[in-house]
Amino acid sequence: MAEQARRRRCFVYVAAAGYGKTTTLEALCADGAGTYRTAEALLAAPYRHPQSNPARLVVDDLCALPVPAQRRLARDLATLPADVELWLAARRPPAPEFYAALSGAAVERGAADLALSLDQVARVLREEHGIVDAEVAVLVYDVTAGWPALVQFAGEALARQGVGAQELLAAITAPGTEAANWLGEQVLAEQPEGAAGLLEAAVALDPVADGLCLGLADAGLLDTGMPGTPLDSLRWLNRAGLLVARGGTASRLVPAVSAVLGHRRRSGCAGTGRPSDAFVDFAVAWYSRHRQPLAAAALLHRAGRPARCAAVLAEHGDRMLAAGGGAEVVRLLRSIPEEHWSFELRLVHGDALRMTGDVAGALRVFAALLRDPVRGGDAGLRWRAAMVHYMRGEYPTALELCTVPVEAGRSVDGVLLSACRASALAMLGRAAESTAVAAEAVRCAEGLGDDRAKAAAHIAAALGGVGARRDEHLAAAFEAAQRADDVVTVVRVLVNRAEGLIRDAKYPEASRVAARAVHTAEHKCPPGLLVSALSNAGDALLRLGRYDEAERHFERVVAVSHRVGLSRAASGLWGIAEVRRQLGRREQSRTAFEEAVDAARAVADTQVLVPALAGLTRVLLDGPDPDLAAARRAAEEAERAAPEILSPLALVAAGWVAFAEGALPVAQQRAAAAVTAARASRRADCLATALELVAAVSIDTGGAVAALREAEAIWRAAGAVPAADRAVVLLGRVPGADGAQRSAAKAAERRLVELGVPAVDGARLPAGEDRSTPVRVRVLGGFEVYVDGRPVPLPAWRSRQARSLVKILVARRGRPVPRLELRELLWPDDEAHRTAHRLSVLLSVVRTVLDPARRWPTDHHVRADLAGISLDVGHVAVDVEELLSDAAHAALLVRTGDRAQAREVLVELDRLYRGDAFGDEPYEEWADGLREEARAVWLRALRDLAGLSRAAGDLDQAVTYLVRLLAIDAYDEVVHRGLVEVLVRAGRHGEARRAFDRWCQAMRSIDAPVPTVRVLAGRP
């Protein structure tokens, strides 16, 4: 039995009420996938193992059983066959006796596995309560720690009761509210006495640490009230989900639980209302020894000791803020009486307001201090005030505050001031000055040996660095920030690292780094830093094709910026616009791009302004009625505003405008310049974008293919699958693309459509013939010509002979046709000397029809030389050429054994064959060769499809193809035999007999041998 239990899969969910245990278990039984029972019901009626294997038994409410009953149930479960999968759930951890009697390993999953993530909280609020504000989702997540039932209470309070986001915690935890009553009755009342005692202590302690609880218990200041140590109670509360992890061995109460317990204490329902002096003194000393001054200050505040709280804040405020405690510091400072305020405490106050996004409040505090004739020039004051303006994007003001005669090497504040100055210079484009100031700051920081100063100096140096040098500075800053416990600087490093990875086109890694930055910055960093982290995360997600997630991040950028008064919304608006552009929402995209441009102009943010103008240019050029004038203005502004590193984007935008206007040489010059600039700045993403323009404006098909292949390779290596697939689609559209390229393009189209991308460069997906290439000719089933996605109207040709000229050139498949031969074919009854000029006029008409905007050289589509006149099939897409190319590709796939892909290609070939080539010219001898070749290829495709369907076991489809072949040629003996054999194999014997009779009749009508009836028996 032990071996049997060891091999069985057994999972136990342990969490407090409302964590969704029952919902999870019921989902495991959906569609008869398992058997659901409560523990009491299972004891009353033992489980009978069904005949079908494997089986799943789901047991709920295990904690409803007393310990002896749990032990008895475990022994019953241990006797079940090994292939019975067990899933159990309990509100409290099962007794040790239960696990012992189970006689096997069980995997325990707790509240942390069931809690909702931030994205899931946002989805619940959006889909179930109609709340779309991403910032509200963050607040709900913080208050509830993702506890599903509490998320629902919060959603109902916000949506139905009209509660504001800032009043949310009070609204759901005040005495008498539904959520407070539920927590009291379903959660707190369920806890054993010892755990309840620890909960009371946890209201005063944040964080709740193992060592602190052990010390309090040893000192007689914490009574667990249950067997074992306080650690047993801590583990109990952590497993149930009332305490949530806060790093290492520390935890914190779920804020909603803490608030309910606080209300109970104040109402006299529990505790004395305030921890004892001995308790406070012991905990403050413990927090101080373990470098947790913010926890010590908060406890002093709760204990009513403002003077000691102010002293701790003044002495350790910088460390508290660096660790991400800005909001808590601001809250504590509000309770400090005026007599306890010092200059150092006011510096902490201003910086804390900056950290929490109260820009106006921070400016008021620092403005008053800067007016002080004695302390106004203090380096610590100056860099802090400058950082407020830096955060708002007001770099000239920040630089002015930092430009004071301070010797950086004499103090940490002096280094921080120099680092801020170097950063402002970098953002203003004064790279050489920034590099020099940052290098001096690094030298001084190393001399002082202060990790906080080192981190700031290396970050400033990284802003002016590139490649390995930038990475070295960021790595040094990261190590120094970690040693200093400076969470804010760690996030700054992560933000800069993510930006560098995006520039280097390493999107999966950038996404991971940016996600870490966002997670850390949520409640621990200044809003400006959170905005930067969100922008990076959105940018990386956008490149990876995770459009919904990207848009949510960009929406939060806008929401945070507006909420706290930051001039940083432009990057979020750009991201929203770019998502919508890629998803084909042209008007919404245009509006968002225009808003992004206005917002970026207002703060002279060229890092956003240039990409926004470039994106706006593309949107203005898309669609059936491009706005060329507005696109030209946007591209010209982008060129004027672009710093060197962004010049490739501006050049590409200008190139697309020139191409749309028909100025091909200008477009080619801009494309070449963009490639050169992108390679020089080592911007892989800009290079790939420039190469796509090169392909579009290239006269040489080989050059276009090479450019697109390089672009695809860059995007693929970067992890930008949608962009790589876009390049593959464009490769498949190059006139003359072979069957393999066209097949790969169709697969890429399907992947893009699944992502919600409806078009590539204006052509709908799956690619029709509406703008897939500039010039497309159809001759299968009838003659049609499309230019830029629109059919050429009949009057544009001016004569029937112009259309006939194109048809004849198509029939010769790119081979030159001598002029004399053409004249005889077009005007057979006229004298030769009279038709030479007519042919020249006709050639001019055809060239005008195929290139009405005159964007391309004269012989781009139709060549004329001494050998004759020919159609350049490398620049004109012809449906019959694609048919023949697909047929060759399918034959290769069959030979290499890739039957599934071959079948897919042949199905597309059959769809492409709309009728015989030159169906509107049935009697012209010049059409016969290509017409018969295309027809033969199509018939062979139908035969191959019948054979592949038969081999794949798709007999009904095989019958369909064979019947179609007989409709074309009723005397094909091989097809007749195949149809009868397939019908017999499918068991459709009546149809097989009728097909056999038709076969015999057809053979008799042409005096051919009649088949033997043995075929109907499945024998040759």
From TrEMBL:
Lineage of producing organism: Bacteria, Bacillati, Actinomycetota, Actinomycetes, Micromonosporales
- Where in this chain does the record put each Bacterial transcriptional activator domain? 878-1004
SMART domains (UniProt xref):
BTAD, TPR
Keyword Transcription regulation appears in the UniProt entry: no
Pfam families xref list: BTAD (PF03704), TPR_12 (PF13424)
Native species = Actinoplanes sichuanensis
Protein name, entry field:
Tetratricopeptide repeat protein
**Which InterPro entries does the protein's record reference?**
AfsR-DnrI-RedD_regulator, BTAD, Sig_transdc_resp-reg_C-effctor, TPR-like_helical_dom_sf, TPR_rpt, WH-like_DNA-bd_sf
Start-end of each TPR repeat: 531-564
Keywords, in A-Z order: TPR repeat
